[in-house]
């Protein structure tokens, strides 16, 4: 893994790249941005046009969702536009990223992305939504190795999980912008200060959305139980031998993690020191199968409303709006690349390619973060980003990754409440491997 100083320099460079990048373009390689270069960013951000494409479903070629009127007809039109826009921006970004590495194009068969939408005014002063893809992940496997305790292995390389880890990397870049001395950087950050909390909140005109071109893997014969990936199988956690949990990599399923995120948020424990919970507004699934509806049902039914009165503010139960889209872009090379996983977030120069069965970077990956083939998304890398953002002295003195997670007490309380309701509903235990997190930066 690269040194903390090296990781910091990379993250700063990439955060500054975001200020120069266009709404949908892949970020160019450039040095630290001069302060005067940031002045034009607001105009660039609001003037970018989405690439020309045939409008979906015979619609007008208007680039934004107009919202002058709120009627059932226009709401349905907006939802149709939204799901096609999510699929299109995901596919186009993947194609753009893979232009220089076409040998990995087969990885698109299992792809997920996070997209933020901003409410802005168009050239005629009408309110509309502007889309920006900020994180991308592909993959359909998890490591079957023995547990490692240094934070360098990425255990779970399923698309939604990798996209979420890439999102965390993007969020750290945004925090660097917020804490930048230049007020223009803070202005362009997606976060703002909160009047009733020391934690930052998402700006009121911004929403977070998730796209997946295939639904997360589910076990259809026990759909309402918690599941985990272990030794290349998806099994109910209650059926798994404790000795396997203790020694082998076992990962909770993406659908179960999605359920947890509806309450705890996608930001995780470390970022909860700085951010209020960050929730997914909608999820577009680009493949209409029976399991699409099951994903929706599980995310809504596994956690009932009795949990609401126990949640400390600002946590809540966020019902995700699920939309289904026929747009799926699969290739004949999918099987050959089934063990590979790609990650990227806004500001990154190149994609990074992992072997999902080992959790480490493959030889020939366009992006190599440091020695040992450890990923820029591994826990140790995220821990180094945390230290570059943390300003509270007591956080900097904590000895391990695990100790930093534990002192995010409100977040841990919420996560424990979710785990307890899983048990109360006889869905199984949510097993955590605390020993895996007991590493330091030394």
TrEMBL record:
GO terms for biological process: adenosine to inosine editing; RNA processing. PROSITE patterns: A_DEAMIN_EDITASE (PS50141). GO terms for molecular function: double-stranded RNA adenosine deaminase activity; double-stranded RNA binding; tRNA-specific adenosine deaminase activity. GO terms for cellular component: cytoplasm; nucleolus. Residues 135-433 form the A to I editase domain. This is Adenosine deaminase domain-containing protein 2.
């Amino acid at each position: 893994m690269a040194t903390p100083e090296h990781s910091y320099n990379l993250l700063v460079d990439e955060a500054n790249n975001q200020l120069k990048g266009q709404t949908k373009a892949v970020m160019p390689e450039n040095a630290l941005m001069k302060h005067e270069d940031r002045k034009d960013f607001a105009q660039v951000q609001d003037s970018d046009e989405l690439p020309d494409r045939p409008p979906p479903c015979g619609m007008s070629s208007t680039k934004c969702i107009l919202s002058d009127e709120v009627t059932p007809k226009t709401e349905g039109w907006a939802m149709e536009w939204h799901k096609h826009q999510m699929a299109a921006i995901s596919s186009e970004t993947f194609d753009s990223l893979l232009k220089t590495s076409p040998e990995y194009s087969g990885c698109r068969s299992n792809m997920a992305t996070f997209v933020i939408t901003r409410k802005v005014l168009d050239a005629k002063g009408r309110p509309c939504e502007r889309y920006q893809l900020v994180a991308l992940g592909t993959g359909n496997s998890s490591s079957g190795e023995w547990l490692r305790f240094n934070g360098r292995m990425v255990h779970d390389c399923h698309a939604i999980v990798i996209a979420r880890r890439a999102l965390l990397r993007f969020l750290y870049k945004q925090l660097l912008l917020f804490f930048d001395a230049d007020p223009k950087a803070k202005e362009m950050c997606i976060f703002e200060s909160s009047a009733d909390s020391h934690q930052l909140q998402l700006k009121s005109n911004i929403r977070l959305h998730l796209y997946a071109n295939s639904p997360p893997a589910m076990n259809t014969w026990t759909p309402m139980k918690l599941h985990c990936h272990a030794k290349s199988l998806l099994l109910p956690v209650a059926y798994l031998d404790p000795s396997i949990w203790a020694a082998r990599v076992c990962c909770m399923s993406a659908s179960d993690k999605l359920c947890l995120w509806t309450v705890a948020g996608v930001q995780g424990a470390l970022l909860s020191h700085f951010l209020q919970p960050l929730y997914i507004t909608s999820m577009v699934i680009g493949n209409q199968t029976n399991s699409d509806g099951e994903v929706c049902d599980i995310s809504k039914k596994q956690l009932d409303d009795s949990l609401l009165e126990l949640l400390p503010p600002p946590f809540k139960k966020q019902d995700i709006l699920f939309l289904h889209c026929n747009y799926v872009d699969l290739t004949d090379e999918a099987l050959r690349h089934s063990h590979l996983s790609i990650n990227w977030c806004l500001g990154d120069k190149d994609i990074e390619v992992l072997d999902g069965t080992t959790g480490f970077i493959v030889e020939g990956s366009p992006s190599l973060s440091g020695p040992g083939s450890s990923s820029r998304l591994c826990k140790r890398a995220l821990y180094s980003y945390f230290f570059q953002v943390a300003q509270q002295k007591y956080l900097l003195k904590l000895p391990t990754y695990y100790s930093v997670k534990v002192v995010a007490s409100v977040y841990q309380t919420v996560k424990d409440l979710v785990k307890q309701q899983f048990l109360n509903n006889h869905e199984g235990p949510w097993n955590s491997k605390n020993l895996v997190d007991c590493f330091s930066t030394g």
